[in-house]
TrEMBL record:
Transmembrane segments: none annotated. The keyword Transcription does not apply. This is ABC-type xenobiotic transporter. One of its GO terms (molecular function) is ATP binding. It comes from Streptomyces purpureus. Its EC number is 7.6.2.2. It is found in: Cell membrane. InterPro entries: AAA+_ATPase, ABC_transporter-like_ATP-bd, ABC_transporter-like_CS, ABC_transporter_ATP-binding, DrrA, P-loop_NTPase. Its main location: membrane. Residues 20-250 form the ABC transporter domain.
Length: 353
């Protein structure tokens, strides 16, 4: 992103550099404030992750941004256009792959894409060509002539995403694109997202999985009960919550006090003694090092070996969403406070395609 030229109106230049800008966005269902004053700034050309548990308000927020739901308060602009006043303009630039799929079960993959292509105004040959291209790119060529109701969950998500990028949108909303998918299918969807972004599309991705946001997003907002409780680059966010835990099982219980000291020193972190007398757990927090969690864990293991401590078993776990929430809510002085993580020089744009 270039810096705004001095002659441009500062408000306009901000608006054009941001794919999404919301302030105090609210949606109320009865007495339930599903989205309760959300401020977001999503730079163009990036994947922005919105991370939150069931009922956090992710889908509701996305629907307002995609003009499918009218906000009850606050403002939202997409590429500088108001989602209420300029809804038609916004709609022309965005596409949504919903949590609940939108393709027709009884049609084949090809039929779905060609039909949607025709609805978008493509000629039949153009729609056929685009459809074949996408089916090929998404590894669905063999399934092209099968009814979508016979697709697996992973194939189903892929055809959904294909349907939403028939016309390359400037902004793509992906609402929990991989919930319920196996690791291989998740990886395929992630590759697709990276490919879409490399074409210049901005992606707003909602997810319940920290590792998914980590894989794809450059910035992440964590939302809970309709509010943003933390926001920042993924590096900063992870550093604030710890990037994983190392679980170690020793052969000899009497070596545990020694192992505890070695791990604490190697990882510069607190070590918990598990109820099992040979087991320890340490958080890999990334403080004071640029190493990834796996590398830090590997070094800690090497230190244990050097100290003559026999390790029977070890595992490295990603911090779960629970741990993220615990860390974030623990660090909040009051519920209204938002953790603004310290930005690092790390990824301010794009994905690791
Ligand atoms: N149309 C609706 N009418 C009434 N309440 C709604 C409606 N849509 C959502 N809600 C409520 O708003 C809150 C936020 O729901 P939302 O679907 O946005 O959550 P989410 O973060 O997408 O959750 P999930 O991860 O389960 O998809 C929930 O309490 C939900 O019950
Ligand atoms: Mg949802």
């Amino acid at each position: 992103m270039g810096s705004p030229s001095p002659t441009r109106d500062p408000i306009m230049s901000t608006a054009t550099d941001l794919a999404i800008e919301t302030s105090g966005l609210v949606k109320v269902f009865g007495t339930n404030r599903a989205v309760d004053g959300i401020d977001l700034r999503v730079p163009t050309g990036t994947v922005y992750g919105v991370l939150g548990p069931n009922g956090a308000g992710k889908t509701t927020a996305v629907k307002m941004l995609a003009t499918l739901l009218r906000p009850d308060g606050g403002e939202a602009r997409v590429f500088g256009k108001d989602v209420v006043k300029d809804a038609d303009t916004v709609r022309g630039r965005v596409s949504l792959t919903g949590q609940y799929a939108s393709v027709d079960e009884d049609l084949t993959g090809t039929e779905n894409l060609v039909l949607l292509g025709r609805l978008l105004g493509h000629t039949r040959p153009a729609a056929r060509e685009r459809s074949a291209q996408l089916l090929e790119a998404f590894g669905l060529s063999e399934a092209a002539d099968r009814q979508v109701k016979n697709y697996s969950g992973g194939m189903r998500r892929r055809i959904d995403i294909a349907a939403s990028i028939l016309n390359t949108p400037d902004l793509l909303f992906l609402d929990e694109p991989t919930t319920g998918l196996d690791p291989r299918s998740r990886n395929q969807v992630w590759d697709i997202v990276r490919a879409v972004v490399s074409q210049g599309t901005t992606v707003l991705l909602t997810t319940q999985y920290l590792d998914e946001a980590d894989q794809l997003a450059s910035r992440i907002a964590v939302i809970d009960h309709g509010k943003v409780i933390a926001e920042g680059t993924k590096g900063a966010l992870k550093a604030s919550v710890g990037s994983g835990s190392v679980h170690v099982r020793l052969r000899e219980p009497e070596q545990r006090p020694h192992a505890e000291r070695v791990l604490a020193a190697a990882l510069n972190a607190d070590v918990q003694l598990d109820p099992d007398p040979v087991a320890l757990t340490a958080t890999v927090n990334g403080h004071g090092t640029d190493l990834g969690a796996a590398e830090q864990a590997a070094r800690a293991l090497a230190e244990l070996a050097r100290a003559g401590i026999t390790v029977d078993n070890f595992g490295l776990g990603q911090p779960s969403l629970d741990e993220v929430f615990l860390a974030l809510t623990d660090s909040r002085a009051t519920p209204a406070n938002v953790t603004h993580t310290q930005d690092t020089a790390e990824e301010t744009k794009g994905t690791t395609a």
